[in-house]
């Protein structure tokens, strides 16, 4: 890990502990020897109140590359997560997480998780990442909402 | 009328200009020339206004400098600090004075020529028109007069090309503005400059961030991307650029830039110094007040 990557991640952790948005959590994982692994985090994204996503916290994993923050972190929901912009593997398709699109090293962890929360209830129909959720979102809204609510129950707080 | 305007533009050219020997030819022109002094006075009042402004800025700078060194005064021998302040301020004032003098001299010289030229040209035109009836007797006189007019025209056009050199004036103004900016940020390290209307550089709510957007830590050696104005810690933006094979996008706004587009950000550096100074003063005051608190509790 480059020193820049390490110091930036330490800073992100410090800032997160000092202040983070309500209902979210994010923490670096522990290595088998008990030390912190700053390159791999687990986090939780609360669904916004008064949406079909509410009353649940959706788990994500965040993997930082060696050349972070030049390159964006890779963020995944559990495999099979139901959302038009989430690949079957769970990888999130979001422009601010794409180096070729809108990723900027200045983007903070806080901005990323807030961006993902926003994406939950505002899918981007122009970048489908999975067949079922994308098709239902476009053509069969009742089924889509039913599926999302079932998923919310699964991850309910 | 053999005299040709000499000099080929530029400041050196200005001092090389010599009025043709036939200038001034007529008493009316001489009279006009005597009015140049009147013009001088007007010009002088303008220069003195400008000088006043310089002086004010300098004195503000001095008091600010004193404030900056106040902390040092606590521990360092007074003589040493005073010496350094005096040296800094003297250099500054010397610089102001000499540039102000230079501007005055150049502008005065130019205005003198211009008034003389206008007067002489006007006079020549009148003479030429009045004696427009060509005869064998006045043929030579007329030719002379016509040549004088064209000579005056040439000189005037040369002077107008020299106007470009009022860039000197502009440079001095820019430096004054720069100094004012420097003064402002030393007093308000985290505030946006007052006139920066079209400047959206790292500003949120009128505040300027002193944090490097890449490392999210306070900057020490700030460099600026000239194309977009965003500012980063030198080593971090260079590392970023290296990872992007020499040509990258701004980590803040994704504007494309190259290594050559990076320059030291002196203003940001000054902000950082002033910010650190404020932190030190704050720490010192806290220490002081907690000492006082302890004393009060003790009694
Ligand atoms: Zn930029």
Automatic annotation (TrEMBL), chain A:
One GO biological-process annotation of the entry reads: mitotic spindle elongation
Where is the protein localized? Nucleus
Q: In the UniProt entry, which residues are flagged as the active site?
A: 93
Signal sequence residues: none
Q: Which UniProt keywords apply?
A: ATP-binding, Nucleotide-binding, Nucleus, Transferase, Ubl conjugation pathway
Pathway annotation from the record: Protein modification; protein sumoylation
Q: Which GO terms describe its molecular function?
A: ATP binding; SUMO transferase activity
TM regions (residue ranges): none
GO CC annotation terms, alphabetical: condensed nuclear chromosome
Is ATP-binding included in the keywords of this UniProt record?
Answer: yes
**Protein name, entry field:** SUMO-conjugating enzyme UBC9
UniProtKB/TrEMBL annotation, chain B:
Pfam families found in the cross-reference section: zf-Nse (PF11789)
Enumerate the UniProt keywords alphabetically.
Metal-binding, Nucleus, Transferase, Ubl conjugation pathway, Zinc, Zinc-finger
The superkingdom of the source organism is Eukaryota
Q: Which residues form the SP-RING-type domain?
A: 197-277
- Keyword hit for Transcription: no
Per the record, the GO terms for biological process are: double-strand break repair via homologous recombination; protein sumoylation; protein ubiquitination
InterPro entries, per this entry? Nse2(Mms21), Ubox_domain, Znf_MIZ, Znf_RING/FYVE/PHD
PANTHER family per record: E3 SUMO-PROTEIN LIGASE NSE2
Homology family = Belongs to the NSE2 family.
- What's the protein here called? SP-RING-type domain-containing protein
Organism name? Komagataella phaffii (strain GS115 / ATCC 20864) (Yeast)
């Amino acid at each position: 890990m480059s020193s820049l990557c390490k110091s930036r991640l330490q800073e992100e952790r410090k800032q997160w502990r000092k202040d983070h948005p309500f209902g979210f959590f994010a923490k670096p994982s522990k290595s088998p020897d008990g030390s912190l692994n700053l390159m791999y985090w687990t986090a939780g994204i609360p669904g916004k109140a008064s949406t079909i996503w509410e009353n649940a916290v959706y788990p994500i994993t965040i993997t930082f590359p060696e050349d972070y923050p030049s390159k964006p972190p890779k963020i995944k929901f559990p495999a099979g997560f139901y959302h038009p912009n989430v690949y079957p593997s769970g990888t999130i398709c979001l422009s601010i997480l794409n180096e070729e699109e809108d990723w900027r090293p200045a983007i903070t962890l806080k901005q990323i998780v807030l961006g993902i929360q926003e994406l939950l209830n505002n899918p981007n129909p122009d970048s489908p990442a999975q067949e079922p959720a994308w098709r239902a979102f476009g053509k069969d809204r009742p089924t889509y909402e039913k599926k999302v609510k079932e998923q919310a129950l699964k991850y309910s707080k | 009328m053999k005299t040709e305007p000499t000099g080929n533009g530029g400041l050196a050219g200005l001092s090389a200009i010599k009025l043709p020997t036939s200038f001034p030819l007529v008493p009316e022109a001489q009279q006009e020339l005597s009015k140049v002094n009147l013009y001088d006075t007007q010009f002088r009042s303008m220069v003195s206004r400008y000088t006043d402004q310089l002086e004010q800025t300098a004195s503000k700078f001095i008091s600010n400098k004193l404030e900056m060194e106040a902390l040092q005064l606590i521990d360092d021998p007074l003589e040493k600090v005073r010496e350094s302040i005096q040296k800094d301020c003297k250099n500054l004032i010397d610089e102001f004075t000499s540039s102000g003098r230079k501007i005055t001299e150049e502008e005065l010289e130019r205005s003198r020529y211009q008034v003389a030229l206008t007067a002489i040209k006007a006079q020549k035109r009148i003479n030429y028109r009045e004696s427009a009836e060509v005869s064998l007797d006045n043929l030579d006189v007329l030719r002379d007069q016509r040549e004088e007019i064209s000579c005056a025209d040439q000189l005037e056009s040369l002077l107008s090309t020299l106007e470009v050199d009022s860039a000197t004036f502009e440079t001095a103004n820019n430096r004054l503005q720069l100094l004012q900016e420097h003064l402002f940020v030393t007093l308000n390290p985290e505030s946006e400059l007052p006139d920066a209307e079209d400047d959206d550089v790292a500003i949120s709510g009128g505040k300027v961030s002193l944090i490097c957007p890449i490392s999210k830590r306070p900057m020490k050696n700030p460099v600026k991307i000239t194309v977009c104005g965003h500012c980063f810690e030198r080593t971090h933006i260079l590392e970023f650029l290296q990872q992007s094979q020499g040509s990258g996008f701004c980590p803040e706004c994704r504007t494309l830039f190259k290594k050559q587009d990076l320059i030291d950000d002196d203003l940001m550096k000054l902000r950082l110094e002033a910010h650190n100074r404020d932190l030190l003063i704050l720490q010192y005051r806290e220490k002081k007040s907690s000492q006082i608190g302890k004393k009060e509790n003790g009694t």
